[in-house]
Each structure stands twice: as structure tokens, then as C-alpha cells.
Amino acid sequence: MECTVKHEPIAARLFKAHGTALRAYLVSRVRDTALADDLCQEIFVVALARGVPETGAGRWLFGIARNKVLSHFRDRKPAAGVGDRAAQVAGPLEVLSREERMQSVRAAVRGLDEDLREAILLRYEGGLDYAAIADRLDVPVSTIQGRLKRARRALKTALGEEQQ
Fold first, then answer.
1. pLDDT digits over 25-73, tens only?
2. Other Cβ atoms closer than 10 A to 153
3. 33 and 27 in contact (C-beta within 8 Å)?
4. What phi, psi does 146 have (nearest 5°)?
């Protein structure tokens, strides 16, 4: 299925100019074509509802996409059966301990400043390398390196793992 929009002419022009690149970006981030198609539709609906700017429409559209992807990763729940498989390999106390640690990590990530949280999520949830993150956020690679370093330090502090 392709990412398509059935609205007025502005939607067609916007999609023609940016649809293919936007869909490729979404597929590379979420690694699921059906989900990427759904997100693409949502992004165009949001874009049309907000009103497309006269200049910088591509950057603006990709900003909406970036936020949708981040929301997806933030709100994502573990896949069904993952916990069951872990319970078969590990004992119930180990699984509980692992889940508690993951909840602590998620809470600590939510507590990060937005720029640090975004870099961490793109790196570890999105699987992007530093250059790809820098490209998506339109900042130098050195900025991403600094953000990730500060984010890791803040997470270690928040999780009480400073001694490692």
C-alpha cells in the first residue's frame, strides 16, 4: 500500500513533492510498512488541518513526522508473547526484576529534557546512528554526541548507577 491522500489540490501537491521521501523516512524509522503507511496518512491529515506554510513545507512536514515517530516509540508497548518467552527462559523473579528495571528506565527517559530524550529514543529505539540522528534533527553530529553523552549521564544518575 502506498501512502496516498484523497483531498484537495494542496494535498496532492504536498504529497507529490514529499510523499515518497516521507514514507521512506517512516519505513526506515518504524521498520514496518503498514505502520509507516498509517503514520503517513496521519501526518498528512495533521498537516492539512494545521494549514501548510508557504515556505519550508518539507522541513515542516518532516518535523511533524519526527514527532509522530517519537510518539510511537514513547507509547509503544512490548510485543505480545515477549514476556512469556522470557518467563520460560528466566525464572519469574528475574522477569519481574527485569520489568521493574525497564519501568525505571522508561520513567528516567521520560524525565529527560526533550532534546536529550529525542536523541536517546532515536538512537536506542529507532536504531539510528549518530549521522542519521543529526540529519533528522538538522544539527551537527557533534551536537548529537554531546546530547547522547549528557543523556546517558543523566540516566545513570537517575537510575543510581553512577558507580558503573
1. 888 788 888 888 889 888 888 888 888 887 888 888 888 888 888 888 8
2. 12
3. yes
4. -65, -45
Burial group, residue 75, by CB count within 10 angstroms (0-12, 13-18, 19+): exposed
CA atoms of 100 and 38, how far apart (whole Å) = 32
Place of cell 536506542: 124
Alpha-carbon span 82 to 23, nearest angstrom: 28
How far is it, in rounded angstroms, from Cα 54 to Cα 73? 30
Instruction: Tally Cβ neighbours within 10 Å of residue 77.
Output: 6
pTM over 0.85: no
- The single-letter DSSP state of residue 41 is H
* Maximum separation of any 2 CA atoms in the chain, in Å: 59
Task: Show the cell assigned to 136.
Answer: 533528522
